[in-house]
Please model this.
Amino acid sequence: MGPQPKRGITVVIAKRAGFCFGVKRAVDMAFEAATRGSRVFTLGPIIHNPQVIEQLRLQGVEPTDTIDDDRIGTLIIRTHGIPKEASEALLQKNYTVIDATCPFVKKAQQYAKLLRDGGYQVVILGDREHPEVKGLMSYADHAALVLNGGTPMPRLKSKVGVVVQTTQPVNLLRHFVSEAIHHVKELKVFNTICNSTALRLEETERMAKKVDVMFVVGGKNSANTTQLACLCTSLGIPTHHIETASEIQVDWLDGVQTVGITAGASTPDWIIQDVEHRMRQRVRGGRG
Amino acid sequence: MGPQPKRGITVVIAKRAGFCFGVKRAVDMAFEAATRGSRVFTLGPIIHNPQVIEQLRLQGVEPTDTIDDDRIGTLIIRTHGIPKEASEALLQKNYTVIDATCPFVKKAQQYAKLLRDGGYQVVILGDREHPEVKGLMSYADHAALVLNGGTPMPRLKSKVGVVVQTTQPVNLLRHFVSEAIHHVKELKVFNTICNSTALRLEETERMAKKVDVMFVVGGKNSANTTQLACLCTSLGIPTHHIETASEIQVDWLDGVQTVGITAGASTPDWIIQDVEHRMRQRVRGGRG
Model:
């Protein structure tokens, strides 16, 4: 006899789960490019979601890690953007370039340049290894300080300008400004944190406090998905970070009354729906 | 038999007690003006210290509360500065004007104008009734929000610029920026808090934690002196806010081992020395 359906369990799905504006735009551009040409490449995986990368590969769109790849007919720049020098080098190429850099990231790049040109010591709050931050760094002439939650406050100059990796939590920024203002005479902050990231984190936090278990759906290599999972865990809620429905284990729902589902900005709707579907095969519930 | 000398008590005086740069400059300018002309007036009391005002009066320098006072031969603008409109009106007067506005306040006025002209919603952190803040307000075309610790966070526009009354504690600024950055896209802060205020508060706090009783010397109408006294009281240290040595009561030193003396930015050295002297008549100690 198979597992019994667990009646009486409520499933709630975050309204803001899944693709943000910039990711949806980029993925749409990639699928569209696939219909129009061959030899379509993305510079790096277009988003941090292995399932979407695999779907694109089936349409003939592949990641490459260099702009000098001889196979390139069309090159798609992903949401994270690229360093200024790479943008300039692309002008010399004979292939088609599709710029799917998130418009919010593009703005943050412009702000980094504006601050640098304005004589500010530029501070980038974020993860120095993240491609978005590497791009921002180039627009600050590679002279910025990159700080995240774990970095001790360095010695700052008297005139400091700040941009933030778009997917960072606002508390990192709050903490930085309240410390830095002690030490500087002028502080100019562009709060480049994407609203959709902030709202998704807030909604996830509210949801996690009301349910027995959280499912966070998205790439294990997606920083913002991992951030959602960490948030839930830090609230003391049992949390499962899964990439696809196939990872769900039956006993995860034992003794559970309410389940919350959220997903990172790079998780496509069909994967979230798949998780929801797999769960509804076992339980009843409603979309929250 | 008079009171016994209380041997073994240590008296420590804050290095940063008394006149700050701007106050010393203004008071010097007033005494200097007195030697050179008659009918010398200050627009409002030149500093918030009744004893200094009285000394100046003996030299013929008197406060007036209007620039239209027919008796004026020379008018001295005090450290707090004056509103833009009053500055403009003074250009039409036939008497001599001596501008003793603190250079740091002048800078804050320029920053307020810069922010206003730059399209920022200007926020002034400080006391709306304080003459310095009234001056700053005028340079923001009277369109600024004035906030202090007790004000709930208002609805902010997306582009906010901040200046601070020079004598405010830095915690007010820290609290504001860490709250505001949540709600705005761009935040430009001129940390116009005078270093001397910040350092005096820090030194006073360190001192208060080490002594049995604090004496805070300065005008009862001086905001920054009162702030020092409040700080000491909030640390749970017995604190006496006195204007002159004559207020010291003998039993205030009963059972006391260590005494700390600090003073506001508008307290002249001779009053601090007087307090020190009066105390040394009773106890032994050293300058800290």
